[in-house]
Specification:
The complex is a heterodimer of chains A (about 110) and B (about 110). With about 110 residues, chain A is mostly beta strands. Chain A has no helices and 11 strands. Classes of the chains: A mainly beta (about 110), B mainly beta (about 110).
């Protein structure tokens, strides 16, 4: 069966510090991968999606970046965090374009 | 643009039926899906409509009308555990790009 893991689950970072969130998928190959951000009580904002290694589509041209160094690994990064980067970050994968996304457990980021 | 509209809150009684509507922008539309999210958790997939009509999965049904750019999620025999946020999501760009609505908070009362 397929599983998705992301870490860390919780982190508190000062403004201006770097960020790295990692997500891995097991049990499937060539998945579509996604990073979403959710502010408290709000919807999910699509940040990045990837349909293959090295192929990243950005939806939010802010201080965040994403990379896909391996088929089932997706990394979200920032060189300098802003207060507005606080939120619940969710990694997801899908096999096909049928609308079914499978989400990781989420990473809750607080920037102080 | 690619935006979705859904009500922010709905309240219903245990055992009742509730419908959550969703309207969307048509540009590049591929399909409509629904997700449930409990507080503190990750969203979980409920249903998908790629074609017009009704899809039924147990107590949950979802409907799509592409000509009206409209869909809804129908929850029957409501239970307390159905209290959660429900998101409609639209697939664009061949389905690879999925945009979520702001979510509808469902409160189920005894």
């Amino acid at each position: 069966s397929q599983t998705i893991h992301q870490w860390p689950a919780t982190l508190v970072q000062p403004v201006g510090s770097p960020l790295s969130l990692e997500c891995t998928v097991e049990g499937t190959s060539n998945p579509n991968l996604y990073w979403y951000r959710q502010a408290a009580g709000r919807g999910l904002q699509l940040l990045f999606y990837s349909v293959g290694i090295g192929q990243i589509s950005s939806e939010v041209p802010q201080n965040l970046s994403a990379s896909r160094p391996q088929d089932r690994q997706f990394i979200l990064s920032s060189k300098k965090l802003l207060l507005s980067d606080s939120g619940f970050y969710l990694c997801a994968w899908s096999r096909t374009s049928t609308g079914e996304l499978f989400f990781g457990e989420g990473s809750r980021l607080t920037v102080l | 643009g690619q935006s979705l509209e859904q009500p922010s809150e709905v309240t219903a009684v245990e055992g009742a039926i509730v419908q959550i509507n969703c309207t969307y922008q048509t540009s590049g539309f591929y399909g409509l899906s629904w997700y449930q999210q409990h507080d503190g958790g990750a969203p979980t997939f409920l249903s998908y409509n790629g074609l017009d009509g009704l899809e039924e999965t147990g107590r949950f049904s979802s409907f799509l009308s592409r000509s009206d750019s409209y869909g809804y999620l129908l929850l029957q025999e409501l239970q307390m555990k159905d209290s959660a946020s429900y998101f409609c999501a639209v697939g664009y760009t061949g389905g690879f790009k999925t945009i979520f609505g702001a979510g509808t908070r469902l409160f189920v009362k005894a």
